[in-house]
Amino acid sequence: MELNDARTQHTHPHLPPPRAPFHLPTWATAPRPEAAPGIYRQHHTPHDPKAAEQAGTPAGPLLLRAALNLAVGLFVYLEGVSLVQGLLTTFGLTVPDSFVISLLIAATVNVSLVIVVLMVFGRMGRWGEVWRRWIAPVLSHAVTEVPPAPEAAPVVDVWAELRPAGDAVRRLEGEPVGDVDYVRLHQAWRTVGSDPAAWREFAAQVAARGGAACAHPSEQRDLPGGRAGRHDLLVRQVRLGTAQDVPKNPVTHRNAGFALDPRVLGTSLLAVGPAGTGKTAALARPVAEALCLQALAGAACAVVVGASDADLGPDDWYDVVIAPGDPEAPYGLDLYGAAPHSDEAAARLADALLPDELAPRAESARAAMQQVVGPYRAAYGRYPGVRALRALLVGDAEGWAELGEQLQKSGRRSEFEADLQQRERMHGRADDPGALLADRLALLDRPALAAGFSGGSDAKPAFAMRALEHPLRVRVKLPERSHPEAARILSRLLLGQFTQAAADRRDRELFAGMVLDDATAAVDAQAVRGVQRLRGANAGVVLLLRTLSDLPEALRAPLFGAVGNRMAFPGIAPWDGRLFSEAWGTHLVRETAVTHVPDTSGGAVRRVGRLVRKALSGTTAQTESVTTRDVERHRWSPSDLAHALPSGHAVVSLTSVTGEQVPPLLVDLRH
User: Tens digits of per-residue pLDDT, 657-668?
Assistant: First the structure.
């Protein structure tokens, strides 16, 4: 459930219909049974195999079988009584004259026969199921009793966990508290631990601010403009749709709500589908919304990357909005991610600058970048801006002279003398990787973009990816229309910085999530290796692609192996479907084959009869042979994925961070 205030409603086309006002005790005490990954747990009814088997039995055959077994059982009972009497007469046994003993013998015989009939014919006729489904409900309605007085609903203390903080918690009972506040306060209380000073500070905040205590630095207690998705922050789930009741889906997931949470997103997700199939509206936006809500609750940090016109939520959702090319954007981007090691930062930037077709020169480019960035940082105590870096890479004489003087003053020239000499030898040569890097940097050194990367006195405040240890919400708007190649460089850089920074965090309490709306240009060999490291770092990425054909063939299989969750949208190409089909593998399917062959059995009389039948009816007598066997079939074939997926649906397989797997599910993303 969500806060459903009139002022939080908006006209987004994917906004669900208005729901009942938020009631904290009802929401906090709602049943959330343990369930397999991908199941929305709030009010979920776990699958009961016995009930499902009983519900799947048609009423007609069940009642007919029960009646037949009742008739046969009654016949056996009567015959059994007659048989016992006949045996007594045959062997000359007489019933004692005592009425009591005669009654006991008769009762024993009848009870024994009834028990045998119930055990044998009651089991075959499933009388117990007939009783539960029809007879017992009728009897319960027929019996008239005085209805018991309704019991008072038990009083639930939703703040019981915070009671040790003292009387200040009582203030929370008298003011409206939302789900974000509830989760945030409990999250803060758990971080207090047994520190008495932290206890007193927490109690003072609650006493002074009530539900707004320990608030996010933005002071927001919910997303401005309302929510488009359905969230359960208590278990950190976002509901995306409903798993369909089809044979291809596991029985445990059929008709259950489909949801994602950090234990699933921690293995990263790859979604493939053409434009217009709903990847952004049905997947990227709800996940971004969930990460932003969890950040407000102090449980996550979010980095959302997409084109400037992508519908990934309003700017008010985010703490940091980076929009290269937009002069009104308040923040720039640190091209080095505030990396503590200059060689690491330089290598990451060099990888982002080079497109796939220049990958063979990646090693020499990394070395050239490191030979510039390392000495510059040692000399000036900071990383170079785009313009200064470009000048040094191209061999600007004044820049190198000034750099040498600064190194001499800092007393570290001898440490970098080899790097300086190597760069000096390479300047002007045809195979100089520095010139190539300078040409690529020129794409970022445009007047519209330079303010976000220049690093000079007039530069905007720069966001560094090393800030992932805080519950931040970051939106990066890529200039895909005005500067498409620069947008590709930035997407590669952001993904590389995120995987590096998330894996290197000292404090991994917060879940670090990244949503990349178009990951076509961002995926390279380094990114694939970085995504693999996120599983153990409480972090994950959501990568959206239009087609796998946009990636080099050598990267497609490694990318499928690096992510734990794979999602196929309608309309994917058959060659894309082949990779999904191979990744999801095969399963055993029971196949029944019916064979008809001419009947040649019997003697002369039967053969004559068959000839007469053929002459009269024109058909040949045949025998039917039925063969049942288990065969391996693809869970989803490439043809099914390419042509059989209905609009508004997707097929998704899941893997949790603990290794629990869910086979492919057909999900309706519209409900």
Answer: 999 999 999 999
Rounded CA gap, 243 and 262, in Å?
Answer: 19
Q: What is the DSSP string of 352-381?
A: HHS-GGGGGGHHHHHHHHHHHHHHHHHHHS
Return the bridge partners of 260, or none.
Answer: 238
Q: At a CB cut-off of 8 Å and minimum separation 6, what does 298 contact? A: 183, 184, 187, 188, 214, 216, 471, 510
Summarize pLDDT for 472-502 with one digit per residue, the tens. 999 999 999 889 999 999 999 999 999 999 9
**C-alpha 115, offset from chain centre:** 53
Local structure of 665: helix, strand or coil: strand
Q: Reduced to 3 states, what is the DSSP secondary structure of residue 339?
A: coil
H runs (alpha helix) in 411-472? 417-426, 433-441
E strands along 346-501, which residues?
462-463, 473-478
Place of tokens 């003697």: 603
State the pLDDT at residue 55: 55
DSSP, res 656: -
Does residue 549 contact residue 576 with C-beta atoms inside 8 Å?
yes
> Rounded to two decimals, what is the model's pTM?
0.82
Q: Is 337 within 8 Å of 500 (Cβ atoms)?
A: yes
Contact 131, 137 (CB under 8 A): no
- pLDDT bracket for residue 142 (50, 70, 90): low
Q: Which of 670, 499, 662 is nearest to 570 (CA)?
A: 670
**pLDDT tens for each residue of 441-455:** 999 988 888 777 755
Contacts (Cβ under 8 Å, ≥6 apart) of 156: 25, 28, 29
Alpha helices in 451-503, H assignment, sequence order: 484-503
| DSSP 8-state code for residue 331 | B
Euclidean distance between CA atoms 74 and 79, whole angstroms? 9
Q: What amino acid is encoded at 391 in this protein? A: A
Query: What are the tokens at 584?
Result: 């999801």
Q: Confidence band (pLDDT; 50, 70, 90) for 330?
A: confident
Q: Supply the DSSP string of 109-162, one letter for each residue.
A: HHHHHHHHHIIIIIHHHTHHHHIIIIIHHHHHHHS--PPPPPPPPPP--TTGGG
DSSP for 237-289, please give it: EEEEEEE--STTS-TTTTTPEEEE-HHHHTT-EEEE--TTSSHIIIIIHHHHH
Share of the chain above pLDDT 90, in %: 51
Q: Give the residue from 278, 231, 267 showing the smallest Cα distance to 653.
A: 267
Q: Are 630 and 589 in contact (CB under 8 A)?
A: yes
Tokens of 397: 């004489």
Q: Which residues contact 318 (CB under 8 A, 6 or more apart)?
A: 292, 304, 473, 474, 475
Amino acid at 126: R
Cβ neighbours of 274 (radius 10 Å): 15
Q: What angle do CA 594, 596, 602 make, to 5 degrees?
A: 130
Give SS3 for 630. Answer: strand
Residue 8 scores a pLDDT above 50: no
DSSP at 497: H
